[in-house]
Predict the 3D structure of the following.
Amino acid sequence: IQMTQSPATLSASVGDRVTLTCRASQSVDKWLAWYQQKPGKAPKLLIYKASTLESGVPLRFRGSGSGTEFALTISSLQPDDFATYYCQQYHTDVYTFGQGTKLEI
Amino acid sequence: QITLKESGPTLVKPTQTLTLTCTLSGFSLNTVGVGVGWIRQPPGKALEWLAVIYWDDVTRYSPSLKSRVTISKGTSENQVVLTMTNMDPLDTGTYYCAHTKPADPGYFDYWGQGTPVTVSS
């Protein structure tokens, strides 16, 4: 299953509401996770099962979607949110990541 | 507190075999439902899932690397080992190991810091 994220790069400002999208080449039902990665650091799990917020992740992060279309919405960007975001499907026994969306100031 | 730490060589020559170890702390791979996976990231590029092993020794591999990669439990109860044969410069990158939640496999909630691997003669 191929995962396609868009846009590749998104420019935004502190306080903005942004939506990142992830599309699967075939249905993955709700088996999708989102990660945040900062330069030189390991990825951090934000959301799993498409819309379940991982413990400790701020409420401004929201995941939605099912099947082949998914979105990660950040309701009010904070300076700490500028990073690269990856989606990952785990519907099959072969897991795949998207190519990432870089969120920049 | 769950932590994972990768270790292994930082430089390997083309055609050599890479062996990386992930040392687990705060959990056991003998716990029902737990899994540990390996993910890599070439410089400036996206994450790529390589393999996963579960508490019951079930393993899964990326089809594109299945012929070259083996994941196994280490000789020590708290270790997971990744071997990759016939290394190529395109295999250069940071290699991460990561934990999957018991009974909720497929995504990774705790990650190691990553270990850099360069393939060069």
User: Anything to note?
Assistant: The mean pLDDT of chain B is 96.
